[in-house]
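Exam prep: given the inputs below (a chain plus adenosine-5'-diphosphate), describe the expected output before reading on.
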Amino acid sequence: MFIVLLGPPGAGKGTQAEIISQKLSIPHISSGDLFRENLKNDTELGKQARAFMDSGKLVPDEITISMVADRLSRKDCKLGALLDGFPRTPFQASELDKILKADGNSINCVPYIMVSDRDLLERLTGRWTCKAAGHIYHEKFNPSKNSGICDIDGSPLYQRDDDKKETIEKRLAVFHEQTSPLVEYYREKNLLVEVDGTQPIEKVSEALLKTVRAFE
Ligand code: ADP
Ligand code: AMP
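Solution:
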């Protein structure tokens, strides 16, 4: 199954992808995580992406699309993948269609996790991420057992540079301008399913699993 998780920054895509990719036994591919890995390793790609990420803008397509295409070409994606944060523009979406089609694949469904901008700001300013593997917490809604330490691998938690109020506002504006047209793009293809993202994490997972299993 190839699934695109759509939703604004902070909707819970990464949190849900961690849970449901395990249940569906398909890899979780987050373009944001791929970029952050490149930043951490100080690669050429990381150097090119940094200024865009720091200012809350989209990284240009020529960098982003080849990075994701490369990840999708790996063996573990032969039977499916759960995409989070990609595509983010109609152009990226049509390129993704081509990449999948070249292997005889296509997108099975696109759950759209809906949350209001006011809630998103609170979620992103309170988000804590694990240094080692990107596991996601929230100081109020999903705290780690020991403050500042990841429950899963014991690594320190940090706040992302782009989770500052001004950058969050820019990222939300970018979502409304550049990414939200994808809602209609996928609705027209009968792939879009709206999911209420304001419910507790477990309830959103249940709704998502029910949604994707209906498309299996
Ligand atoms: P995204 O990947 O869409 O940017 P995340 O999964 O990183 O979003 O979630 C953003 C923040 O909101 C994190 O701190 C996460 O713990 C928290 N969060 C995720 N889902 C929920 C939820 N259903 N209710 C409350 N907080 C949530
Ligand atoms: P995310 O982890 O999804 O919140 O993404 C963090 C940042 O990485 C974004 O604000 C962008 O700068 C960049 N990014 C991630 N995915 C994409 C994408 N599909 N297209 C362009 N830029 C992206």
